[in-house]
Amino acid sequence: MTEFDQRLPSEFFDRVQGRVREMIDVEGLDAFLTDDPEDIAYLTGFFHHPSERPVAVWIEPAGRTVLLLPALELEYAQSQSARAELVSFFEFPGVTSPFAALADVVGASGRIGFSSTMKYSRLASARAAMPHVELIGSDLLMRARFVKFPEEVRLHREAARITDLMLEAGVAMVADAVTSGEDLPTEAELERHVTSAGTRTMYAEHRNVVVASLLAGGLVYSGANSAFPHGLPSVNRLRPGDTFMLSLGCAVGGRFIEGERTFVLGEPTADQRRFHDTIRDAQRVGRETICAGLECREANRLCLDVIREAGLGEFIRHRQGHGIGLGMHEAPWLEDGDGTILQAGMVVSNEPGIYVPGHAGYRISDSMLVTDVGAEALTTYPRSLDDCIIAL
C-alpha cells in the first residue's frame, strides 16, 4: 500500500500566494499582514504552536512573502520547507518589538491590510513598529481560503475516509461490549477509543503527518448529556435505551472534516424514531439543496424548515452548518445572517440538529464539497435510524 503524503509541495503555496496577491491588488492594498496560525499555514505551509511570541506573514502583491518568527522556531520552519523569506527575532517581549524586525526588512509604508482576527496587543505593536502605514482590517485571507485547490480537496477526502473509520470504530466498541456482556463504555472511554483509531490510522498509513490543532477526536455524549449541543465527554456510562452521539472529525495535512451520527442503543421508542427521522430528513434536504450559486442563508432556511414543519422547531439550537478548511469551524456560515453565495470548491458542514432537554440530542452531519451541480457528501457513514441502531 502506497503511503499517503500529507505534506503539500512548494508549488502549491506559489499558487496560493498568487491568488492572495491578486486579491490584495484588487483591494488596492500595498501588502497584507496576518498572525493567524491557519493563514500562516495556508500561505507558507508552516504549522506551529501559537504562543505569546508573534509569528506573522507579510505578503505583497509584487511577489514578496516574508515569515516573521522567533529564532527558536527558525529551524522548525526550515524543516517544514516554509515557502517564504524567513525573518527572526531573538525573544519576546524583546528590547525592541518583534515587529520592528519585520519593518526593518520590508520597509513598511502605504495601505496595509491586516487579518481581522489579530488581537489588539499585536496590532498595537505592529502600528508602533510601522508608523508610516495605514493599517486596514480585512477578511481577505478568509475569503481566499473559501474555495479549495485540488490538492486540498484530496486532503479533505482522506480526512473524510478516516472520520468514517472512526465512526465505525466507535460503533464496534459499543457492539462488542454488548456481545461480550461487558460493561458498556463511558463517554470518555468511547472518545479515547475513536481518537486512537483516527490517529493510529494516520501514523500507520501516512507520511509527513501534519499535527494541527486537533489531529483526530470529537465529542461523544449520551442520554440527557447529548441535549447539550457541545457537551464534553463525561464519565457517564452508556445504558440500554440511550440515544448517543458520535460527533467526530480529524485533520489530514491540516485540512479538517467532521462527520456525526446519532445512535440508539436497543429498540427505539416512538419519540426516538420521530426525532431521528426528522433530522435525517432535514439533513437529506441539505444534501440535495446545497450547490454553487445558493446563498448560505437560503441553504440554512431550506434545511431547518424541515424541522419546523415537523413541529419540532422549539428544539433547534443552531444553524445548519459552517465552512470547513484549515479550521474546523470557519466562514462562510450556513445561517440566516450570512448572504455569502456558495461556490464550487467550498467545503461546508451540513449538520441540522434538535436538542430535547432532559432527553437527548439528535444531529447528523456530513462535510459537503460544493459543486456546480450540487454537493458531494465526503463522509458516507449510513444515516438512517435503522442503520444506527445497536441491537441489545
From TrEMBL:
InterPro entries from the UniProt entry: Creatin/AminoP/Spt16_N, Creatinase/aminopeptidase-like, Creatinase_N, Pept_M24, Peptidase_M24B
A Gene Ontology molecular function term of the record: aminopeptidase activity
Annotated keywords: Aminopeptidase, Hydrolase, Protease
DNA-binding in keyword set: no
Keyword Protease appears in the UniProt entry: yes
Domain of life: Bacteria
Designated name of the protein: Xaa-Pro aminopeptidase
